[in-house]
Each structure stands twice: as C-alpha cells, then as structure tokens.
Amino acid sequence: MARDVSSQFSPSWYSAFEGTHTQSREQRMRAFSRLWSAFMRARVFIAAVLLSLQVFTLVTQSAGPQWLVVVCSAHLCAALVMMYFWRPVEHRHPMHIQWVLTIGVDVLVFALLQSFQISNINYTALFALPVLLAAILGSLTLGMATAASVTLYLLGEAGLSALWTSDLSTARFLQAGLTGTGFFLVAVLAHQLAIRLAREEALAASSQAAARAQAQVNVLVIESLTVGVLVVDPHGVVRSANPAAQSMLLGQVSPQAAKLLLSARSSWQHLAHLVNETFARGEALETETTIDDENRPSQRLHARTRLTAQSGRSAGLCVLFLEDLREVEARVRTEKLASMGRMSAAVAHEIRNPLSAITQANALLDEEVQAPAQKRLTRMIEQNAQRLSRIVDDILNVARAQPNQDTTTAPALPLDQTVRQVALEWVRQSRADRILGVHVHAPAAHVGFDPEHLRRLLINLLDNALRHASGKPSSIRLITQPSGNDHIRLSVWSDGQALEASVMRHLFEPFFSSESRSSGLGLYICRELCERYGAQIAYRRTRLDQQEGNEFYALIPAAGPAPAREPTQQSLSYPAGDSIATRAEPHSRPMTTGGASLGAR
C-alpha cells in the first residue's frame, strides 16, 4: 500500500489532541475551528482595508493601476466565501485546495500589491498573515514552505528591480534576506507555541473530564449512602445534604435547591450547637442525639463532625455525618448471627440426645399404662417431643449444620382448612376473641407446605399483627385468595400505624425489631420458611374497608392449578364457645392501596 502523504511532513499542532476515541476527535475539531474562524476574520478585515486603500488611491489618483481594485475586490469576496461557506478541513495533505485558496491567494494578492505599487506604501508586513496561518493551522513543513516562498519572492522582486533600474542595491537585497529570515523565525516560533498551547489545552480538557467524572462518582456514592451527610458553613446554613440526611431531618427528600438552616427548628438546635462547637474548638466532635418531631416518631442518631481545610481567606466547612442508631444496632445484631448459628447448632445437637431418651421412655411408658387419661398424657408427650424434634431440625437447617430436606415431598395441604384450624388455635392461646377476622376464598386450593411450618408461619404473622393492631373488632384479617393460575395468596392485615422507612429496610433481617422486648426473629423465620418452599413474602401498606393498615402477604405455589374464584363465600364453623369474627365479603371486592387492586395478580 502507498504510504500516507501526510506521514511525509511534520506533525501539526493538533497532534496533541490525537486519539482514537470520539471525544479526542471532537476536542481537536473544536480547537481547529476556533483558530480557523479567527484567521478567516483577520483575512476579511485585511482584505477590506486593502480594498478601501485602493479605492482611496483610485479616487485621488495617487498610486497604482486601476485593476488592483478588481484584485482587492476579488480577494475580499474570496475571504468572505472561505469564512462563511467553506467548512474547515484539518491539515492532512499540504496541497489541499483549502490551503491553496487561503495561503496561496493571500501570497499572490500581497505580491501583486507589492510589485505594482507606485507610492511609498510597503505591503511586506502583510506576508506575516499567510506565514502564521500555515505555521499554526498546518504543519511546520507547510509553514517553512510558505516562509520560503515569501523570501524567494522578496529576493526575486529585489533582483528584478535592480535589472529594471540598472541599480544593484546591496541594501535592498540585505533587507529582503533579513525579512525572509524573520518570516522563518516567525514560522518556527509560532508553530512551537501552537503545539505547546495545544498540549496544555488537551491536558486541561483531559483533567477537566477526569474531574467531572470523579465528581459524578462522588455524587452517586454520597447519594447512595445510608449515612446522612450535611455540609454546613460557619453560619449554620446547610450547603448540601444527601437524601439520607434530608430524610432524617425532614422525613422526606427535599428539592436540591432547598436551603436548610440548622437553627430554624427547635428539634435541630442540638445539631446546630454541635456544629458551632466544632468551629469554635477547631476539632472533630461526636455525640448521640434524638430528633423529636410532632409529625413523625422520634429518631435516635449518632452525629459526628469533621472540618475541611481552609482555602485562603475563606473559612472551612463542617461536614456533619448522621447515622441512625437503629441501623447500627441492626448491623451489630446481624453480625452476631454467625456466632448465634454456631451456638444454636451446638445446642440443638445437645438437645437431641435427651430428647431421644424422652421419646424412648415415653414409648415404654405407653406400653405399660392402660388408663385413658394416662394414654392422653403419653400421646401429648409424644406429640410435643416430635414438635421439638422438628424445631431442632429447623435450627440445624438454618445454621447450615446439615443440608435442607427435600421440600418436593411436602404434603399437599388444603389451605383454607389448615388456615381455619391454625386461626382457631391461635385465638384460644392469645385470647384474641373478636379481634381476628378470617376470610377464605380458595376452598379447593392445596399448597405443598409442611403442616408444622405453615402453622409457624401463620402464628408468627398473627403474633406480629397483634402487637401492632388497635385491638378493635376485626382489626386483624387473615385472608386467602387465588393469585394467578399457579399461586395462592395468604395475607395477614392489621390496622396498625405505618412503618417507618428505616424499619421497612430491615423487616426480614434477623435480630432486628422496633420493640425492645422482641427477639427480631419472627419475620426472619417466616422468610426462611417461605423460601424453603418456593414462596415469597413481602410487606405493603394497604387500604381495607376504607381503613389504612399493614399487610404481610405470602405468594405460595399451588400444589395444582389454583381454582378460579367462586361466587359463594366459604362459611366458617367452630365449636360452641369459640368465636372468630367472620365477614362474608363478596369475592369480587379487592383490597386496594391508593387505588391499586390487591386481588389476584
């Protein structure tokens, strides 16, 4: 292949912007276009001045032939066309038509004016324009060639003048040589300065792009932090705050342009005092505080401050970090889970031996006793021993001391019947008469769930609902209904207050609870049990009978195709004396959340 012509010449100034990616090419083209426009405006200005000068000399009949006016007019038109209608092209080939129409035309016009002048006007200085244009926008070779052509013209013009006048003037030749040498120096210096400036501009653009990218990364990191970050000036004005900090202070995320003043609210006075103390002492401080707001529950925070370095006369800023203590405690409890798992596995193994002895002793005792009352006692011992054995197995599975059992062999339970039995048992034990309302809408649905595990799931959800419900009649609802063609929806609704955002983030984490007396394992066990059988459990704020409430629902795979909804309500019957509030609602009435249906989905 033929070698590229441009490789035969020195690199141009914009080689500092050379790159393969699009951004480098765009930067190079923008810089080239700016300089091109500047030179084209200079050419138009000089052409207009030359035309005005020639018109003036023509009117006064003081110098030059008349056709020089036509030459200057054509020069001005060519300069205007190049500035407005010619798209600049980067220098790749030295004899590109663009360079001929700029550098070549200028040299030719200036040479004609210099050669056919009559007055004492000297146009030699004008040759600096094409030399600079070639040296700055083109390669060094093109700039030197332009300077050489101008020098040759000056020397030739001096020689012809000597022949015509028969006066060989050494001074004129010397002046032409010095002028040409100056043009060579101008070409070299202008080219080197252009390259230096281009490299500085490319470096500045690269640094600016890197700084912009780093700033964007910093913004994303700060906005995604769960730790609140506020930047406060010495006057207590919050310059910036990430969404976590806005949520802690305001309970919601405010617009970015909103300005906060720490002394504006009484609940923030302690934070303002902490910032003032930090500026006064000039050192980092930290404390635990509580934000009490009438519109939302109080929030315990750990606040710590850091001072930025002062820049010149401007004072530094205080960076205030806020951390929700409940989340800190939740992380600590989560870190304890590994050690608790190991301890639970050890305890479970220790329980197995005496439990096996109790089971064997009870079996021997059952063979000896004959009275019906004693038989009932041995059966109770056997049932509870089996329950303890299953609990031990569950603990070992959670602790990963042994692999999970195959859940594909779980029996297909009739969901509505099981729900009614568990609900009746729970009402007896918790004495929640008339508080629970049971609404079963899947009479023929079966789910692949271990009976004991389903019972534990329902008991945990009902106990959790009872702790937060108002205690009014039907303040807790237990609902079953088909969800699509292959899932059954089991939900427990209560009329409790809405959960805080900080609590919702850790609902199903172990050892996390908004109450000091709760172990924080109930919802975690529910999630583990659901995941074991391919079910999903979630929380949402819902509206039922025009009343807001909290709903925990599980989508359980059906053991067979889920039946379509029937127009009749399944009645609930319990032994006399055991009452559970029931509500015969039409199947077509869905629960809604802000207008969104909670029916089958």
From TrEMBL:
Record flagged with keyword Kinase: yes
InterPro entries: HATPase_C_sf (IPR036890), HATPase_dom (IPR003594), His_kinase_dom (IPR005467), HisK_dim/P_dom (IPR003661), HisK_dim/P_sf (IPR036097), Sig_transdc_His_kin-like_C (IPR004358)
Region (Disordered): 560-601
EC top class named in words: transferase
SUPFAM superfamilies assigned: ATPase domain of HSP90 chaperone/DNA topoisomerase II/histidine kinase, Homodimeric domain of signal transducing histidine kinase
EC number of this enzyme: 2.7.13.3
Record's catalysed reaction(s): ATP + protein L-histidine = ADP + protein N-phospho-L-histidine
GO molecular function terms attached to this record: protein histidine kinase activity
Membrane-spanning parts: 38-59, 65-85, 97-116, 128-155, 176-195
Origin superkingdom: Bacteria
PANTHER family, alphabetized: SENSOR HISTIDINE KINASE, SENSOR PROTEIN KINASE PILS
Protein name as catalogued: histidine kinase
Source species: Hydrogenophaga laconesensis
